[in-house]
Amino acid sequence: MELFKPMEKFDEAADKPVHEGETEKVKCLIIGSGPAGYTAAIYAARANLRPVLYEGLQPGGQLTTTTEVENFPGYPEGVTGPVLMEDLKKQALRFGTDIRWGIATASDLSSRPFKITIDDQKIIAADSLIIATGATAKYLGLESEKNFMGHGVSACATCDGFFFKGQDVAVIGGGDSACEEALYLSGLCKKVYLVHRRDELRASKIMQERIKNRENIEIIWSHIPKEIIGDQSVNGVILQNKKTGEEKKIDVQGFFLAIGHQPNSEIFKEYLETDEVGYIKTIPGTSKTSIEGVFACGDVQDPHYRQAVTAAGSGCIAAIDAERWLSEKG
Ligand code: NAP
């Protein structure tokens, strides 16, 4: 079997890849700068893979839109999302990761080295590729939703629910995530309204049962949020009945979106196996995708847990998988 060629040019003294026109050759390319990407970078850099990491559309990933993070181990007093991401970035830099601005806009994974286009211009030829592009929570698109982001509006109950202890909140959606978020919040909050746009839930039967048996959860059927209202932070939501058009207000301090996530796998879908939503499939217990030498970690391959700490753990797995694979291939 043909092994991939050794790196064509690498300036050992400068410890940097040599640029060749518009194409640059690297041993390990990481795309994405959330907890998965940075953790992969820390491990890959310490394994001397000289990783190059492109930060992507949202440097620091989804956590940069959260305020306080209290469930990432090692921060007993909590830490803000942006500070946590800055710390992870510093740690990746400390071991020599080449961190760059830029968005991966196309890929060609048909042969090795894999070719990734950055910002529609430059091409990186990578011997191994770690995809850590994350997922994007879906939002309704309301202007007021943007205005109250981080001030009552959230797309992660596990991350932000604690701040609404003893208060009333609304969860939007009718799938398993919405039910899970509502159940989680019902253990913390006084009252949880589960607002769904239809008159039956999409969630699994077992989840539906749990929701219906929880005293402080009220399902508001066939309604959609029209506007979130408040002053400095959320204090209510105007809902519209989809059948009658009538509007009503509920008083809530928290507004949780659970209408799905979109994994950021678009540019790889032509080559990699994904599920029907677009989550990249990995061999269970590993970060290995359907193409040898391409590894995926973090939310782009995880429809279930989606936590910073699980993303970080999977980033570590991806770097170790990449390192072992590269050394096997010589
Ligand atoms: P989902 O199943 O796609 O559900 C999204 C929900 O949001 C649906 O009820 C949908 O309404 C509603 N929705 C979508 N767009 C909306 C809009 N613009 N306005 C109002 N409502 C809107 O997504 P998910 O709940 O995140 O689940 C994703 C996958 O992960 C599923 O396969 C799920 O089973 C799985 N999951 C499993 C577990 C578990 O097993 N514990 C937990 C979480 C997720 P409609 O129903 O009308 O389409």
Report on this model:
The chain is an alpha/beta fold. The chain folds into 2 domains: 18-136 and 261-329, FAD/NAD(P)-binding domain (3-Layer(bba) Sandwich), CATH 3.50.50.60; 139-257, FAD/NAD(P)-binding domain, CATH 3.50.50.60. It is built from 7 helices and 22 strands. The strands form 6 sheets. Strands 3, 4, 5, 8, 9, 10, 11 and 22 form an 8-stranded mixed β-sheet that branches. α1 packs parallel to α7 (308-328) and α5 (176-186) packs parallel to α6 (205-212). The chain is elongated and about 65 Å long. The model is unreliable at 1-8 (pLDDT under 50). NADP nicotinamide-adenine-dinucleotide phosphate (NAP) is lined by residues 140, 172-178, 180, 197-198, 202, 224, 259-261, 303. NADP nicotinamide-adenine-dinucleotide phosphate binds next to α5.
